[in-house]
Prior knowledge:
19 strands, binds iron/sulfur cluster, 6-stranded parallel beta sheet, binds S-adenosyl-L-homocysteine, 5-stranded mixed β-barrel
Amino acid sequence: MDRTTPVVPAADIQRQKEYCQELRALNAQKPAPPRAYVDTYGCQQNEADSELLRGMLWDMGYQIADTDQGADVIVINTCAIREHAEQRVFGNVGALVHGKRKNPAQIVCLCGCMAQEPHVAERLRKTYRHVDLVFGPQALWRFPELLRRVYLRRGRVFETAPDDGAIAEGLPVRRSGKLKAWVSIMYGCNNFCTYCIVPYTRGRERSREPEIILDEIRSLAEQGYKDITLLGQNVNSYGRDLEGGWDFPRLLEAAAGIPGEFLLRFMTSHPKDATERLFDVMAACEKVAPAIHLPFQSGNDRVLAAMNRRYTREQYLDKVRLLRERLPHVVLTSDVIVGFPGETTPEFEDTLSLIEAVRFDALFTFIYSPRKGTPAAELPDPMSKQEKSANFDRLVAAQNRISLEKHRSYIGTVQRCLIDGAGEDPRNSLTARTAGGRLVHLSGGSALIGQFADVKIAGCSTWALFGELT
Ligand code: SAH
Ligand code: SF4
Ligand code: F3S
């Protein structure tokens, strides 16, 4: 198959596997197996990347620890999406200096989106001298080589040059769950929304081969995974760089044809590329969860244009109408930014009126955070923090009311749910998810975990449903 996306040659992946074996042999000489801890910030894409890092560490002979206490290798997989996320990382990385003082042989690594920001790499180089290895998301597949370099030379390694990225297949993976799995179908983003750092940290859009993705899903289904989420910054642009006419609806339909009892989810969908064909496939395929995360960001056309979102409020509302025509009970969630530079309170009120018109099941609300190097960070931003917070609070209050109203409408219905874990409250010993992805608390024996069951919904809060087994 001809393609425009660069693919890492199999021989280069093989070399990484050899580095793993070399480190494994060195680690085997230690009195006790060394331990590695991977800490993850940010989105599901980072969670999926951390599962690859753990797979590589395991192959290198490390036990996977669930705390940094006493770990021989610590990997912090970071997120750069908002200032707050970065501050948390700097705080936590700073605190690691004490552990390193006690154990100077400890190796501290920082990877993920922050590593790809030049000012962050510079700060780490100058002031966080206990960090040994820094590498961006596009260098992830070379982690064994980079770690080996630190290990053998005991020098600091920075692999943070700008990198558009290539597709690396065949990396080992250690998944965190037995029921839910992530499958990256593509990497990177070409949309350049003016507030967003992701296109700078994750490189250009590139799609994995459909056959490889479908094989991975087949194998997950055979292993008993019940809830599989296809990941990409904008899954709706899947396949644009592939030959053979593949696009996301076709991939989703093919995935839904794989035998087994499982549900397919996907995130995220850019509204400009969500098509009628996607909604038709969702409606036709029982295995595709009736849920979509469709970020709208703002309800005001001037702000949407300044964000470079490339749709209008009306176009967004039309998409939602079309979606609900095909899937009347779809669970619809979204992201929204309050306080984009220059947004006025009347413009913000268009966002409020949009959520009243759409009535999302849940909303992820963010206050705009300037990201160095993005166009929006250069715009005048006259609104005070207090005013932005007041708007934010109004939005959250409106959405909480809507979420509660939506949850109330479930009461008395029977929902087919996946029982996915133990609950924290003894009265509700289990947690479950509806097909649409809403959280349900219920009581029952732990033997039910991993099964689909009919649950009668008896109560609710803003954030969850309460039910009983039928
Ligand atoms: N690719 C996904 C979004 C990834 S980021 C998509 O396009 O839907 C997740 C969310 O973080 C975005 O939808 C946006 O609402 C929010 N976000 C991104 N950059 C931000 C910034 N600079 N400040 C505040 N919120 C931001
Ligand atoms: Fe960021 Fe926009 Fe790309 Fe999403 S689509 S990752 S918000 S640039
Ligand atoms: Fe954060 Fe990078 Fe994901 S910035 S949200 S970890 S793509």
